[in-house]
Amino acid sequence: MSTIRGHIYRVSGPLVIAENMRGTRVYEVVEVGNERLIGEIIGVEGDKAIIQVYEDTTGLSVGDPVYSTGYPLAAELGPGLITSIYDGIQRPLPVLEQLIGFFVRRGVKAPPLPRNKKWHFKPLVKKGDKVSEGDYIGVVDETETVKHYIMVPPGIHGVIEEIASEGDYTITDFIAKINGHELTMLQKWPVRKPRPYREKLEPNEPLITGQRVIDFFFPLAKGGKAAIPGGFGTGKCILPGTPVLLSNWDIRDIDEIFREVKGDDPDPNVGEEVVEVKNKDLYVYAFDGRRFRKARVTHVYRGYTDKVVRIKTASGRVLEVTPIHKLPVFNPNGYVEFIEAQSIHPGDYLVIPRLLPSMYGEIKLPVEDLVVYKDLTSRDDDVNEKVRKLLRRLSRKELEEISNETGLAVSTLKTLGYKKTSINLKLIAYLNKKYDQSIGFPKYLGIVRSRKTVKIPHKLTHELAELLGLILSGSSIIGRRILFYNNSRALRKRFLELVEKVFGVKGREKFCNTVYCIEIDSIIITRFLELIGISNGRKTDKTSIPKCILNAPRELVAGFLRGYYLGNGTFSRNVVEIVSVSKKIITELAYLLSKLGILYSVKFEDKKNRLQISGLSELKKFYQIILSEINNIDKVKNIRDYIASKKENRLVRETIPLSSSILKTLYKVVLKRVFGKHSINTGNYIYQREDITGYGLTKLLNVVNSYSDSDERQTDVYEVVVKLKKILSMLRYIAFDEVKEVKVIPKKTMVYDLTVDRYHNFIGGNIPVIYHNTVTLHQLTKWSAVDIAIYVGCGERGNEMADALHSFRRLKDPRTGKLLVNRSVFIANTSNMPVAAREASVFLGATIGEYFRDMGYHVLMVADSTSRWAEAMREISGRLEELPGEEGFPAYLGSRLATFYERSGYVKTLGKPERTGSLTIMGAVSPPGADFSEPVTQATLRIVRALYALDVDLAYRRHYPAINWLISYSLYVDNVADWWHKNIDPEWRSLREKALAILQREAELAELVRLVGVEALPEEDKLVLEAARMLREDFLQQDAFHEIDTYCPPKKAAYMIRAILLFYEKGMEAIRKGIPMDKIRGLRCRAKIARMKEIPNIDFDDTFHGLFKEIEDEFNELMKEVEVIGGV
Length: 1128
Known about the structure:
With 1128 residues, the protein is α+β, with helices and mostly antiparallel strands. The protein folds into eight domains: 3-72, Beta Barrel (Elongation Factor Tu (Ef-tu), domain 3), CATH 2.40.30; 123-185, CATH 2.40.50.100; 199-232 and 776-980, Rossmann fold (3-Layer(aba) Sandwich); 243-355 and 734-772, Hedgehog/Intein (Hint) domain (Endonuclease - Pi-scei, Chain A, domain 1, Beta Complex), CATH 2.170.16.10; 367-454, no CATH class; 457-596 and 615-645, Homing endonucleases (Endonuclease I-creI, Roll); 652-730, no CATH class; 984-1127, Bovine Mitochondrial F1-ATPase, ATP Synthase Beta Chain, Chain D, domain3, CATH 1.10.1140. Strands 8, 18, 19, 46, 47, 48, 49, 50, 51 and 52 form a ten-stranded mixed beta sheet that branches. Strands 1-2-5-4-3-6 form a six-stranded antiparallel β-barrel. Strands 22, 23, 24, 25, 28 and 43 form a six-stranded antiparallel beta sheet that branches. A hairpin with a 5-residue loop joins strand 11 and strand 12 (147-151). Helix 12 (554-568) packs across helix 13. The longest helix has 27 residues, at 1101-1127.
């Protein structure tokens, strides 16, 4: 029990100094303040104790009590660990959520393991057996895949005096008695103290991860220690006020979405907030690489940033995002890649939406809401007759009930049953509600004591959509009057016709000051317009488009845009332009044009916001989709005449910024002069650096297809053709927008993000763009061939941790077919939690790992990221005013990291049965700017024996895993060589060395290639480059989201390397016989090698042996052809 020992002497952030603490010890747990915050003594000076507090110290003051516990910080170990989610001091987060909600309050405590849950215990020993520490005495089936062995705790041995029978017990129930020691299934162990073992062995069995670059080139041994250094963080966020397009076509600000999901405003006192979307379906549109699809939002996130990147594009898009927010950029080599905003430059091309998905079906209007107006009556004969018939057959009691609800006298109700007169709308609404919509809602309405009747549309029609466009763009609504201003007689006539067709009323023409106008005098119509979102009064910068239009299918959107252009648009200097004081109107018009697949540009200014459509192809679409029904209005005729008089011209967003080398490949099938015969000047694209258009690319591919035969389709030309066809397919849904300006701006602001399932991006912005959201690669934790996986998010961003938890709950272990969560433990110490708890979290993870290791399991622990733990050490050290080391880190940084990594190992455990187990530790290091020379990375490299260096350039090129094969290394190659040779391939080591030599030679040739080009190299070097490309693209590159390629068995990896090296060796033999490299590249087997990844991971031996034979046969055939020519 805690006893008071002292009082707070000083508070400095997470560091507290307490006095009157004589007798306490270093690493003893204390409780600080009246809320009893958990802390740990890290130093003692006289009667003062230096305490790092693991909870927020806000509100602590000098003189507050400090309680000692007499115990070190310890982990609870026992059944219930698997699938658990803890914070850094082992508080179970799901339990705390049930107790106090989403946000953990200070001083709240809950037992790490459930005390009330019963586990089925099976004894493995009997009374009288001799046991010692580490012996199995029982077993519990904790999950489908993990048997939890109950062991004799360290320090206890003797004879079993009592043992519980098989049955269900809680972890605190008695299960055994050994020499007077009563045991339960619960153990406690100090997190800073390594658990004992019998013998530490040299690790000699590889930890198979399913990632080819690791398993084959840089193997990690079970019980080993490794580091993955790479640039800080993958968090991506956008600014408040940024609109997001939801799948129901609501356009909502991202901060508004966050507030709605959270149910409250953001908490400014918390660094980060992550809220799971639980009680509502929230869907957005996401880009899947080719088109836009509906995708579910799983979490919303809120954080802070101190600077933003502002990007301006040729179309007028202005994006403000955090520097590491990723945006889709078109790579000249023919694919879309997501690049951090800070790495985007003028001249790059953003991928922007061209055609967004549309909703279908009728758009019903909420006409029933007009019932709030008490003076409205039904003038609909059919509806009125139904009311009269109903009233006539009702009893007096029923009439009295209606009278009480509507305020109409019983006598009035009786009169209405027989007298043909208008009927109050409130009565109809009540009868519909009571009698299940049996009457319906009237199509014609009037006002009490007025003879005017107005037709009320119940659903959105083409005519109403166009009329709404005209009203919103060129009208004022003042009181009960609508005034439509326009000097075009034809347009005023069209407005009158639409009003009469939609509402059944006539307007009158008049002259208002300097302009002609149409006046519609009807309070019913103005009320109806206000009901659907067009408010009374003059237009302001807050005016927006009604939701019924935003939600409408394409044909009705076209009608609205027709009306809006006729009312407020101009066509001058070959450009359609719409101007509005409302930024929101221009934003919504942009989204509606994207629904129709029409490109545009936008300029946002203080008082005038402009939307422009230019370029012949876009003007054609605008005319054909929106205006073709109109012939008698000048601004429409001008567009039609312009289109008829002009030939196809080029618009920047219609061009495709392809690398000339891709197009040059097509010369292998079709000569330049053949393209010329078809009016395709390929020289402009290849030598003059002119970008090809979609139309030009279509013509070019048609020529290629007509001249290529089936054999040639198997060459690298075929790969290029497939790539170009994919680009053309994408261009139906996307376009390319050139970046004109990029600025980094200091700006402290909240930022927001959405976690989008599967596709990890969404449509948003004042003009539609594609935003990327966080996706964290946890491939090692997911697919490694281990029994237990422990993931420690040490200072990790909250949305990344949420993403990891979400993926573990739905992914399956490829070996067992069971969910990965059933063999995993999670420790979530996110970046908004107190920094001191980061150290506790990594040692907690190591302790849990050692516990399962002692059962004979192979355990992998991933700590992401040790750099953030080191930052916490630096902060504590600074507050202690210790002498700083390099870059302010404490001098003991290296030794503290070593105490963590040295907890790894392959060991003979204590106890019987004799068994071995391992704990493999992999720490993610996040050096600022990916600078591997900084202190944390250097200290880590002196400890670990394997390094997987993440390369920013590889990530930008969409090469995943982005592990640099020239910098990475493994010192476990010698240890695991025997295992590879006996179990997989007896030539593994030589295959590995040959492949790495090719990659090294490619790096040596890189500078020469930049100077003289590939064509100037000797044929042997060209083959080296081709083989290196095959190694990079067909072996090292691995798709984490591909059903097959996400995990690669080691034997398949060996076969893949053999295929590439066989191609290389046969190629060298062919080159020595005088065969040029172009002939070698054209072999059909080259394309099959590129598709090796797609070979299923089972029963692949025959497939690969067939591929080997095909490679040899094709090369033999090629060399015979040369010999025949030489003999002739």
